[in-house]
Each structure stands twice: as structure tokens, then as C-alpha cells.
Design a protein that fits this description.
The chain is α/β, with parallel strands linked by helices. Helices cover 25% and strands 24% of the residues. The chain is built from 14 helices and 28 strands. The chain has a 10-stranded mixed β-sheet, sandwiched between helices. A 5-stranded mixed β-sheet has the order 2-9-8-4-5. Strand 16, helix 9 and strand 17 form a beta-alpha-beta unit. The chain is globular. The structure holds zinc ion (ZN).
């Protein structure tokens, strides 16, 4: 077994060294906004004599082309490998750019496309991200919040009711399957990145904070146009999607450093959970590894700080132009727990605002900047719930996303539609709506739960109560419920029933190293089915999938949204609407 492993490794190494003598960042076929900053890096596979090294940009020596000679590292990371790194370069003229690199014997070239933008069309850009939002969540949200009769929905979701729509491909530079870091990074920078990385090309060095950077839309919008910047989520604010709007790291788990990068960038509005990494290590609930009090730092820098919904409302009504809202030490709670079940962290943090209230406060504060603003809003728990096979909670947070979008569209309409609004997922979850679960014990008491899954004509229509004014049915434990199943499964007990106390926990640690097994907690639930997973035992939850995601858009610049798009093109739609390239 060990011999086999060694042989496989050798083949991989040989193949690797034969294919690429030099790695160049940005990568081949990168599309780069004219004037946007990026770090240029060449990694040589061995030591190179700088006198023999030749690096050209459209035929010109790189130092002349970029205006700096950068930093040549003879033995990068103390190994027999040289590297060349230039920080903060940019290319102002649009067109194809060929970069050729030679170490004296071996050479490689990449071609980048530098693109321009038209004149500014939108005063503001608002990017809504439903993290892990799958078409099944979307259809379920429509059925629950609008109702359906004889096959026709009784209404449209705001996220569907948009003039422009596209399918967006989500693969990253290292894998067909993306995570929220590199997918949000593609939207925020227009560059592909790798799993766990944001705002950088993941390089080979050990340091996760030194990787070659690419500029984010928040940096560009602030630097070039003086726009206000808002980042709003209901996950930890340091989590991948919100962090990718601002931060640069190959390691998304570097929360302390991400908080430091937030503080350096000073987005005007920053809202979510995750206060644990803002609190000094001595404070209760802190997860920081130092004594820095970032809440105090933000306050000293002029931010209004809110930790509850009443404090948020007060801040929104004040004259505040900068707002930090941190409403839980970890992730906030979703709509189903906050409004109905009171599970999860609601008892500990009973005064959390709804995403719609966070968005309203953000719009109030950000629109005080006359220059306009860029705002990213994430309904981030759709993904967390999909991972733990908790379909009801994921669907309720999809309805919440829809409410936030509707409210924002109404806000934009009242201003004469000066705002580009985009709504999309960052990656898919392999969920499917396959029918209903017919759980009427009064008429069919002896039928096992598995036999109660109704498909085709037996699915019929669910019987959730009519939705309230916000689109939420008051109960999910009705006798005919939607059956949404994941195609990626760890071993788990399928109970076929919503979890009314706390979010689902399908797995628990198994005895082996880094492996999981079905959670015993549900073993004795009547009618439960032990379902053997199709994932490796080291995976304790459902995983992301690589299908395209749906993008809908309205407002100035939204006409660029159509057909089949790459995730990097979403950045291009936004920078084009804001006219972020320098005038030619
Ligand atoms: Zn996820």
C-alpha cells in the first residue's frame, strides 16, 4: 500500500514538473479590468540565475512595462525555487497582453485580456448572494410563500421577477467544485481563485497571507469613485462570502487576520454575526488570540456599534455614516428559528434583527454618501442548513432573501431605479425537490415513513398554512410536506421530519481519525431509516455541487446579464455599471 502510494506520488510529480516549469499569476486567460491593481508573480520550479531570467510583457521588459523591478527571491521559502513578485501593478490600456517568461532554457507564456468599461450607468450596485441557494430551495420558497393551485404559482418571487437572467458557471482555478471563498472572490475580483482562497491567487508558499493579490470591487469603488461600501450577512462577518468582498488570504479560516483587514479597509457598513473575533481574548465568548478590542477600535474610528435589533434601529435613524453591527458571537439564527421555533442560538441572542432589517439599516446609512455605494447582502445560512440536510430552515432563509430583495427593489424604484441589483447563488447544493412526504398518521398510521414519500401524482401539493405577511407559513410540521433530498450524503438517519428543536445534526464523530458516522441522536426515532452515504467517511455533511447557478438582475447595466456566463463575468457586469475603468 505504501509502495503504491509512493509510485503514484512520483508519477504525479513527474507529470507536474514536465507540464509547468513556471507558474505565472495572474493565470492564463485571466481577464483584468483596466486600471485595477494586481500582484504579478512568477514561480520557477527550481533556482534561476536572474541574469538569464527574461520576463516580457507584450515584448517589453517587465520592469519597464510595470514601472518596477519587483522582488526576485533566489530561494523562495528557503527552498531551491526562485520567484519574482511585483506588488500592486496595473495595466491601463485595454487589449490582449502576452507575458513571456524564460529562465534561460525553459519558457512559458500566458495571455491576459485587459478590458475597459463604458461610462457609469448606475449610482449604486447591490449584490445579493444566496449562499448555496439551489433551484430546489427557490421552487420550495415559491410554493411556501406564494402558494400554488392547479400547477400555477399564485405569485412570483422578487428574485425571479427580474428582467434579466443568466446561468453562471462556478468552477475555481483548482477544482470543478467551488467553496464560498473562491466563488465570492470571483464575483468580487473578476479573477478565478482556489478553494479556501479569496482576493488572491493561491501560491505555493507556506504563508497564507502573502499570496499574489487581486483588487476587489470594494477597493476599486472606494478608490476610484469614493463610493460607500457595505457588507451585510447573517453568518459570521468573517465567513468566506462577506470576507471575500474585502479580504485577501489563501486561508478563509484566518478570522483574526480577516478582522484586521476589515479594519484597514473600513467598509462603511459591516453587519452580521461573528463578534467572537472582534473581542479581546480575555472577554467572554472571544475567539481572538490577542488582546486587541476591534469593537473599541471601530468605535474609536467613528463607527456606530449595534449588537441588537433596537440598537440597529437607533443607529439607522441616527446620522451615522459608518455602522458596525455584530448580533451574535457566531452565526446569527435563521428565520424559522428566530420567528417560530426559537431554536438554535435564539435563547442566547433573542434580539437579532432580520436580514430585511439589516438591509434597511444598511440602505439608510450607505445612501448618506452622495457618491453612491456598493453593497453585498448575503443570506448565508441557506448553505449552512443545506450542509446539515435541514431543508425547512434553508427554505425559510430563501424566503427571507426574497423579502430583502423585494424591499430593496421597492427602495430603488422609489429613487427612479438608479441602482443595479443582482441576485445569485455562489455555488449550488445538490438538492432536489422530488415530491411530498405524506405524514397523515390519522388516516395511515401503520405505513413506514419511507413509504410515505409521494412522487409523481402521489406528490400532489403540500398543505402548509397560508403564509403570513412576510411569506412564511406558521408551521413546517404539516401532514403533507415538501420532500427535498440531497444527492450528496454522509451516513445519517433519515427521519423524514423537520427538526423542531434545533437545526439538524446528521452526523457525529466516529471512532476512526477524522471520520463521521450517523448521529445516534436520531437512532430511536420511530420510522427512521439508516441511510448509507455516498461520500467519504471523513465528510460529515452534505457538500457543494458544481452545477451552474441562477443569476437574475434589474436596474442600469443589468442588460449584460443573459445566457451562459462565467462567475468572473459577474464582476465585469458590476464594474461596467459603475464605469470603474479609467477614462481612455
Ligand atoms: Zn457551504
Amino acid at each position: 500500500m505504501i509502495q503504491l502510494f509512493a509510485a503514484v506520488t512520483l508519477i504525479v510529480l513527474l507529470a507536474g514538473s514536465q507540464v509547468v516549469a513556471q507558474t505565472i499569476y495572474p493565470i492564463d486567460r485571466a481577464e483584468i479590468l483596466a486600471g485595477a491593481q494586481f500582484d504579478f508573480k512568477v514561480e520557477f520550479s527550481d533556482r534561476v540565475d536572474p541574469a538569464k531570467m527574461k520576463v516580457t510583457v507584450n515584448g517589453a521588459d517587465y520592469a519597464a512595462a510595470f514601472g518596477q523591478s519587483g522582488n526576485f527571491m533566489d530561494r523562495e521559502d528557503g527552498k531551491d525555487q526562485s520567484a519574482l513578485l511585483l506588488r500592486n501593478v496595473s495595466i491601463s490600456r485595454p487589449g490582449d497582453v502576452t507575458v513571456e517568461v524564460s529562465d534561460g532554457t525553459r519558457s512559458r507564456s500566458v495571455v491576459w485580456t485587459v478590458y475597459d468599461t463604458g461610462p457609469r450607468k448606475a449610482k449604486n450596485v447591490i449584490l445579493f448572494i444566496g449562499d448555496g441557494l439551489s433551484p430546489a430551495h427557490r421552487v420550495a420558497a415559491r410554493i411556501l410563500s406564494k402558494g400554488i393551485a392547479e400547477g400555477k404559482s399564485r405569485g412570483k418571487l422578487a428574485i425571479d421577477d427580474m428582467p434579466h437572467m443568466a446561468l453562471v458557471a462556478t468552477a475555481g482555478s483548482d477544482s470543478i467544485i467551488t467553496d464560498s471563498a473562491n466563488s465570492a472572490s470571483a464575483y468580487a475580483t473578476g479573477h478565478k481563485s482556489a478553494v479556501n482562497a479569496m482576493g488572491v491567487y493561491a501560491d505555493r508558499t507556506a504563508n497564507p497571507l502573502d499570496d499574489p493579490r487581486v483588487e476587489t470591487i470594494t477597493s476599486l469603488a472606494k478608490r476610484r469613485l469614493g463610493l460607500a461600501i457595505g457588507v451585510v450577512t447573517n453568518t459570521e462577518i468573517e465567513d468566506a462570502t462577506p470576507a471575500a468582498m474585502v479580504a485577501h488570504t489563501r486561508r478563509r479560516a484566518a478570522y483574526d487576520e480577516i478582522v484586521a483587514q476589515y479594519f484597514a479597509a473600513k467598509p462603511d457598513v459591516l453587519m452580521g454575526g461573528g463578534s467572537a473575533n472582534f473581542l479581546p481574548q480575555a472577554a467572554a465568548g472571544s475567539k481572538r488570540k490577542d488582546d486587541v478590542d476591534y469593537i473599541a477600535r471601530f468605535r474609536d474610528a467613528g463607527y456606530q456599534v449595534a449588537t441588537t435589533k433596537p440598537e440597529l434601529d437607533a443607529a439607522a435613524k441616527s446620522e451615522a455614516r459608518q455602522l458596525l453591527g455584530l448580533f451574535a458571537t457566531g452565526n446569527m439564527d435563521g428565520a424559522l428559528d428566530r420567528k417560530f421555533l426559537k431554536g438554535g442560538g435564539v435563547k442566547k441572542f433573542p434580539d437579532q434583527p432580520d436580514l430585511t432589517e439589516q438591509v434597511q439599516a444598511a440602505l439608510n446609512v450607505l445612501s448618506r454618501n452622495e457618491a453612491g455605494f456598493f453593497l453585498m447582502v448575503e443570506s448565508g445560512l441557506i448553505d449552512k442548513y443545506a450542509h446539515v440536510l435541514d431543508m425547512e430552515r434553508a427554505v425559510y432563509d430563501t424566503i427571507m432573501l426574497d423579502n430583502a430583495v423585494r424591499q430593496t427593489r421597492d427602495w430603488a424604484r422609489a429613487r427612479g431605479d438608479d441602482t443595479l441589483i443582482l441576485v445569485l447563488a455562489d455555488h449550488n447544493h445538490p438538492n432536489s425537490l422530488v415530491g411530498t412526504i405524506n405524514d397523515d398518521m390519522s388516516t395511515t398510521p401503520n405505513v413506514p415513513l419511507r413509504e410515505r414519500v409521494g412522487v409523481y401524482e402521489k406528490a400532489g401539493f403540500p398543505n402548509y398554512p397560508a403564509p403570513d405577511a412576510e411569506g412564511y407559513p406558521s408551521r413546517v410540521d404539516v401532514s403533507k410536506r415538501l420532500a427535498i433530498f440531497s444527492a450528496s450524503l454522509p451516513d445519517h438517519y433519515e427521519t423524514y421530519r423537520p427538526k423542531l428543536d434545533n437545526p439538524n445534526e446528521p452526523t457525529m464523530k466516529a471512532d476512526g481519525p477524522e471520520s463521521f458516522k450517523a448521529n445516534d441522536k436520531y437512532k430511536d426515532v420511530p420510522g427512521v431509516v439508516l441511510r448509507f452515504g455516498n461520500l467519504p467517511a471523513m465528510i460529515g455533511a452534505s457538500v457543494h455541487s458544481g452545477e451552474d447557478v441562477i443569476l437574475t438582475a434589474t436596474g442600469p447595466g443589468s442588460e449584460r446579464v443573459h445566457g451562459s456566463m462565467d462567475n468572473t463575468e459577474v464582476f465585469r457586469v458590476m464594474v461596467d455599471a459603475l464605469g470603474l475603468a479609467p477614462p481612455q
